[in-house]
Amino acid sequence: MTAEEQYEWENARPHTSEDLSEAQCWSLLRDRSTGRVAFLDDGRVMVFPVNYVVHGNAVYFRTAENGFLGAEGEVPRNASFQIDGYNSDQMAGWSVLVSGQAGRVADELLLTQLWGRRMAEPWGGGRRDVFVGIDPRTISGRRVGRR
Fold first, then answer.
1. Other residues' Cβ atoms within 10 Å of the Cβ of residue 31
2. Which domains does the chain have, with CATH numbers?
3. Cα separation of 24 and 83, whole Å?
4. What is the CA angle 82-83-84, rounded to 5?
5. Which SUPFAM superfamilies does the record match to this protein (predicted)?
6. Which residues are registered as beta bridge partners of 103?
């Protein structure tokens, strides 16, 4: 380590890390439109970017009829959904993680409500007209930054 690097390290401000409340997590989720859904498929962790909407206290996104989580007859499975934000210059950021059961939405009233919500179009090609919902069992978040 050079003398200049040592000086910069010794004068760096300490970082803080704080847990976000559930209310803060939902507020951040409602302010964004793109996140990542993750689940296990045949022993392999799959992660996909999705546009989403929060309705009630659940996260919903659209997928294809034959999608990993939206296929007809697919049993709901454990999944996680994550969003984050950061500022590299300030060495600060936050992350929210929602975990629970993900499954195809079949309830007609809920589908009517979801189709009535303004939502960014899915980025994936083809038809994406199947809603998948994640019913959260846990929600957690963390904010990090310099003091």
1. 10
2. 17-146 (2.30.110.10)
3. 13
4. 130
5. FMN-binding split barrel
6. 133
**What is the 3-class SS of 107-137, one letter each residue?**
CHHHHHHHHCCCCCCCCCCCCCCEEEEEEEE
State the CB neighbour count (10 A cutoff) for residue 84: 15
Q: What is the DSSP string of 5-32?
A: HHHHHHTPPPEEEEEPPHHHHHHHHHH-
Separation CA 98–CA 115 (nearest Å): 22
- Residues β-bridged to residue 34: 51
Cβ pair 102, 79 in contact under 8 A: yes
pLDDT in tens, 118-137: 887 887 778 888 999 999 99
Residue-wise pLDDT tens digits, 39-95: 998 899 999 999 999 999 999 999 998 887 877 777 789 999 999 999 988 889 999
Q: 66-83: string of b/e by CB count within 10 Å (b at 16+)?
A: ebbbbeeebeeeebbbeb
Distance CA 27, CA 38 (A): 21
| Distance from C-alpha of 100 to C-alpha of 57, rounded to nearest angstrom | 12
